[in-house]
Structures are given as structure tokens and as C-alpha cells.
Amino acid sequence: MTIANLSTSVSTQTTSEKILDAAEGLFAGSGYAATSLADVADVVGIRTPSLYNHFRNKEALYGAVLDRLIDSFSAPLYELGQTEVTLEQVMGQLESVVRQHHANPNLARLLQHAALSGGPHTDELIDRLFRPMFSSPSKLEGGNIPMLGDSGLQPWAVMAFNNLVMSYVTMAPMYSDVLGLDPFSEEALENQLTLVKSLLQAVFEYKGA
Amino acid sequence: MTIANLSTSVSTQTTSEKILDAAEGLFAGSGYAATSLADVADVVGIRTPSLYNHFRNKEALYGAVLDRLIDSFSAPLYELGQTEVTLEQVMGQLESVVRQHHANPNLARLLQHAALSGGPHTDELIDRLFRPMFSSPSKLEGGNIPMLGDSGLQPWAVMAFNNLVMSYVTMAPMYSDVLGLDPFSEEALENQLTLVKSLLQAVFEYKGA
To answer: Is B175 in the same domain as B98?
Structure first.
């Protein structure tokens, strides 16, 4: 094994992966429109023309960033559409999605930027991430959620919990000081998990006044 | 009364107000960094140098937009810190804040941009809008919220409801298609009100499993 080979096997990240990492961070921070390929190249430490060897243009790079993020989320909330579910299953899936957004807040940030300012691939994001949650709402084992009765508001509750989980990470900088806790610390994660699970339990078990 | 006077009394909006309206829409859509004074001048239909007759620079204009928005919100949630409150009072204040963000989503959008991308005046926003909610948490008449017990999670519940109300308007474009309803319609507002009030009721009245 030559020195060159050794170096390659130690630094396993390809240039494409470095570009994707840099672009993910910049798109998540500033949004699609405010991020240039020159910004991305700067972070990677390459020249902008070299970037075109890996991605056709900014839109293609953004699409690749989104694909990688969506694939890396096991998307537990989006598997709920299939069949009857128990409270325990929903609880496990909620916990999993809270932990995933906490571990990598960039998907929520990119979605929030797209909702605020638009950008390419937004229809595709809706189709892949949001539509499955609503197209076939899960049936709770044993019937309707008593709190919601036959109000037809189950999709609104799904939206509320999805927003609750994502806005925790997208709004985090506003709260770290007033809560006296870094929202991305393990202690904050445990608090947020306890809170959202209590909320879900209340939704499922509260029988009405 | 001359024709000139008549014209002034009919068109009551001053140039400063037109500039504030244009800037509010642009900052809410694209965020602080991505909005230029030339963009604002274009929307108003004046030349950029004329804009400096009204506002010193972009940061001063952004500050004036924020001041106007914050003043126009009666900030009902932020009055909760004073004393013991009943569920009915909290419910009324939650309804009021949902209606205000629905009527003008730009404050929520600006706050979300600031949380994602930073910008001037962010510490002041936190001090004026967020700190009052947390500095002296309201006491519920009759003691702790049973669902939360003595977990110390009441501030986390305040954050959750604040995020829930604001993310409804900041994420709206992602859901209009899947809900089959414009989130800014009156019908959608009624659904959202019913949902968040049910959630609040469950939080206050659910006694735990």
C-alpha cells in the first residue's frame, strides 16, 4: 500500500460528500436563494468551476442535498398511514422523529426556508414528506381519538405535531437563553421528549370536559 | 379646500407607511440578508436614494418594521406573567394570539427568518417577545398543571404552544394542498382554533394515565 492509498483509506469522505455537507449547512442557514455555489466552494476549499465536475448547477446540488436528508430520515411518522396503530406505536414513532430532528436539524431548517421563501423542488418535498402523512390517516386501534371526536380534525392534529417537532429545532436560537439550556443538549432533548409525549398522551386519552 | 388638499385627504398613507408595508412583506418573504433597499424602493415605486429621506439605512428600516409589528400585536400571551390565571383566561389569550398571527403572519415569518439566519435586533426580539413569557411563569389557579406535575416543564409547554401557533402560519404553504384548504381562509382558522383549544384543554385537564 502506497502512502497515497493509505491517505485515501483514512480520509474516506469524497469531494462530492464534502460538497453536500457544505451545501446542506449553507442552504439550512440562509435558504436556497441566498446561497451561491461560490459560497459552497469556499467552505469546501475548492474553486467554483471544480464544483461543476460534481453537480450540474445549484438546483441539482440542492436536490441532491434534499435527497440525502430525506433518505437519512427513516421517516417514522410517514409510515403511519398503513393500518391500525396503537398509542404505543405512535409514541415510539414520535420519539424517533424528535430524536432524528435533534440529531440533524437541517431537514427541518430547509423545509422551513422553502415554506417561507419558496424555491425549487418544493412540490416534491410536499409529495415525499407531507402527503403520506395525510393521504391515508392512520386509524387508532379502537376508533376515533376521543378528544377530536368526529370533528375531522385528525389531519390538523398530525400537522400540529409535525410542526411542533420541527419548530423546536428551527426556533431553537430564540429559546436557548430564556430556557437557560442549549436546545441541542441531551438534557433539553429529554425535556422536549417528555413534553411532546405527554401532549400526545393527553390527546389520545383525554375524554373531553 | 384645494385639489391638492383633497388628494392628500383621500390618499392617507404616507410614503413612510408605504415603505414600511413594502419592507415588511419583503423581509417576511426573504429574510433580512436577502432583502435590499433597492427591492423595497422598487415595490414602493420610488428611487432608492429617496428612501434615505425616511430611513437611515436597512437596519433602521428593519427595526421600524419590527417595532410596528410588535406594537400592533396586543401580545396577549405575554401578559400571562402577572398573576394567577384561570383556564378560561388562558384560552381567551390563546385564541386572540392565533387570530392575530392569522390576520398578519408577517411577525411570525420575520421571527422565523431571524431564528434560522440571524440578523440585527434578534436579542431585542427575544427580550420583547420571548423573555416575558418565561421570566415569571403564570400560576394556574389551583396549583400545577396536573399533566406536567412538578416536572418543571411548564416553560417547555409555553414554548410548544408559542411554536405551534407561529409555525401554523410559517409552514402554511406546505399544508394547503394536503389539507385541501387555504390555511388563511376563515374555515381553516376555525379548524386551527378548535384544535389548539382542544390541545390546551387536554393539557390543563388531563390528569395522567
So the answer is: yes
